[in-house]
Write a structure and sequence with these properties.
Blueprint (H helix, E strand, L loop, with lengths): L3 E6 L3 H10 L5 E7 L3 H11 L3 E3 L2 H5 L6 E4 L6 H10 L3 E5 L6 H13 L4 E4 L1 H4 L1 H11 L6 E9 L19 H17 L3 E10 L5 E10 L4 E7 L7 E6 L2 E6 L6 E6 L2 E6 L7 H12 L10 H16 L1
Parallel strand pairs: 1-2, 1-4, 2-3, 4-5, 5-6, 7-10
Antiparallel strand pairs: 7-11, 8-9, 9-10, 11-12, 12-13, 13-14
C-alpha cells in the first residue's frame, strides 16, 4: 500500500483543519468528501482539489479508491457512521468524543477487530509532540514523582444557544465537548488506570453540563482535576506537579511550548510540529500501514478510560 486514501464525512470547520494537517503527510491524501449537502461537498472538493464529492455517504464508501474515513460529524452521528464505514471495509479515525457510552465503544472496536480494520479516536493531546516529550521527561524523573495534575478547557462561544448540538443531554456539555481534551491529557500524564472519580456540574436547561469539574484518582496514586465548559471562559492550561517541580503548558492539546520549574530554575522547551492535527493523522496512517487494528497510544482502553469520566459527569 503506497498512500492511504481518505474520504471525509462532514466538510465542516474541523475538516478544514484536518486538510491542513494531512497536507504534510507524504503517505496519505484525501480523495473524497461526503455531505448531506452536495453544494458543501462540491465546494470542499473544489477548494482542496479532491477527486470526488458526494451527497450520499454510502456512495463514497462504495468507492474503491477510499481506504480510510475521517468522521468529522456531530457526536450523535458517530456510532451509525463508524459502523457503516466498517461494514464497507474502511479503516476509521473518528473525531472526539468517539462515542456516547462505553458499550458503544466496546461494540465498535470489537466489530472493527473482527473485520481486520483499524479504528481510532481522534484525540490531539496524546499525539502532540510536546506532550510526548513531556511524558518522556516525566518518566525520567524531571520533576520527581508525579503527584497531581490540573487541566482545563472551557469556553462560552455557544452560551445559551440551546439548539446547538453541544447542549444535547446525551452527548453534549462542557466535559463531553472540550473537557474530553483535559481528561485525555490527565490520563496520559498519570500513566495509570483510573480507580476513583468524583465530579460536580452546573446543569443547563437542556440537561447537559454547562460547566463541570471532575476529580480523578489513579491506581498509582496520582490525583487530577479536570474541567470543561461551554458556558464559562477560563485560562485553558495544564499543570503537572511532582515532588521536585512542576510543568506548565497553555493550550495543552495543541501547544508546542511548555515550561519546567525546578526549585529556582526555569526551563522553556519547544517541540515544533507542522500543525496540531498532523501527529494524530500520522499515527493513524502509520497504524494502518503497519496493519495494526488499534493505535498503541489511543486504543480501545484509552477511549474507555476517557468515557468513564464522561459517563460519571453525565449522571452527576
Amino acid at each position: 500500500m503506497d498512500k492511504i486514501r481518505f474520504g471525509i464525512l462532514g466538510p465542516g470547520k474541523i475538516s478544514h483543519r484536518f486538510m491542513k494537517g494531512i497536507a504534510f503527510a507524504e503517505d496519505a491524501e484525501v480523495v473524497a468528501v461526503a455531505s448531506r449537502d452536495l453544494m458543501k461537498a462540491e465546494a470542499f472538493k473544489s477548494q482542496y482539489g479532491l477527486r470526488y464529492a458526494y451527497d450520499d455517504y454510502v456512495k463514497m464508501l462504495e468507492n474503491p479508491e477510499v481506504d480510510m474515513v475521517y468522521i468529522a460529524t456531530i457526536p450523535s452521528m458517530h456510532y451509525e457512521q463508524i459502523m457503516l464505514c466498517l461494514r464497507y471495509h474502511k479503516h476509521v479515525i473518528c473525531e472526539k468524543p468517539l462515542l456516547a457510552d462505553s458499550a458503544a465503544i466496546k461494540e465498535c472496536f470489537a466489530y472493527a477487530g473482527s473485520q481486520g480494520l483499524f479504528l481510532m479516536e481522534a484525540q490531539k493531546a496524546p499525539f502532540n509532540y510536546l506532550n510526548q516529550e513531556i511524558k518522556r521527561r516525566l518518566e525520567q524523573g524531571i520533576i520527581g514523582q508525579v503527584k497531581y495534575i490540573e487541566a482545563a478547557y472551557c469556553y462560552a462561544s455557544f452560551a445559551q444557544n440551546y439548539e446547538h448540538w453541544v447542549y444535547r443531554r446525551e452527548d453534549g456539555g462542557g466535559m463531553f465537548d472540550v473537557g474530553v481534551y483535559a481528561i485525555a491529557y490527565a490520563n496520559m500524564m498519570a500513566g495509570s488506570p483510573l480507580q476513583k472519580i468524583q465530579a460536580m456540574a452546573d446543569r443547563t436547561p437542556t440537561g447537559c453540563d454547562g460547566f463541570a469539574v471532575a476529580m480523578l484518582e489513579y491506581e498509582n496514586g496520582v490525583k487530577a482535576v479536570v474541567k470543561g465548559a461551554i458556558e464559562l471562559n477560563t485560562e485553558n492550561k495544564a499543570l503537572i506537579y511532582g515532588t521536585e517541580g512542576y510543568i506548565e503548558t497553555v493550550n495543552f492539546w495543541k501547544n508546542t511550548k511548555a515550561t519546567i520549574y525546578r526549585g529556582d530554575t526555569k526551563e522553556d522547551i519547544e517541540i515544533p510540529m507542522p500543525t496540531d492535527f498532523y501527529p494524530e493523522i500520522e499515527a493513524a496512517v502509520s497504524g494502518v500501514k503497519a496493519q495494526l487494528l488499534q493505535s498503541p497510544i489511543m486504543n480501545e482502553e484509552a477511549s474507555l478510560q476517557i468515557m468513564k469520566v464522561l459517563e460519571y459527569v453525565r449522571q452527576v
